[in-house]
TrEMBL record:
Keyword Signal carried by entry: yes
Full protein name: GOLD domain-containing protein
The organism of origin for this protein: Caenorhabditis japonica
InterPro entries given in the database record: Emp24-like, GOLD_dom, GOLD_dom_sf
One Gene Ontology CC term in the entry: membrane
């Protein structure tokens, strides 16, 4: 099959009473790699973090997924086709949304955030 593309449709939203932001991204996660994307959080503006993702193309249609704050894993999925997570924010700083394709040695995966 040659190069493999796994597309993940995801919506990253920081929701508050004051401000709401929604972001859509498309990224590629190479085989054997782990990639994270950062969402800065200001508690004066952000009350929740919501992430939805879906694998829409390629291979077994699965990926490992995590949301982290510092070294703390807040949410985690393993070998999932899709997921939806909502976190009540109680600490400011950079939150990480990570896709792990380290289990694949052959296929690159495209992700839409």
């Amino acid at each position: 099959m040659g190069q493999f593309t796994l597309l993940i449709a995801a919506l990253l939203a920081s929701t508050t009473l004051i401000q709401c932001g929604e972001y859509d991204f498309t990224v590629e996660v190479p085989p054997g790699k782990f990639q994270c994307f950062f969402q800065p959080v200001d508690l004066a503006k952000h009350k929740t973090l919501e992430v939805d993702y879906q694998v829409i193309d390629g291979g077994d249609l699965n990926i490992n997924f995590m949301i982290l704050h510092g070294a703390n894993i807040l949410k985690q999925d393993q070998l999932k086709v899709d997921g939806s997570h909502r976190i009540e924010l109680n600490q400011p700083g950079d939150y990480q949304v990570c896709f792990d394709n380290s289990f694949s040695y052959q296929f690159e995966k495209g992700c839409v955030l």
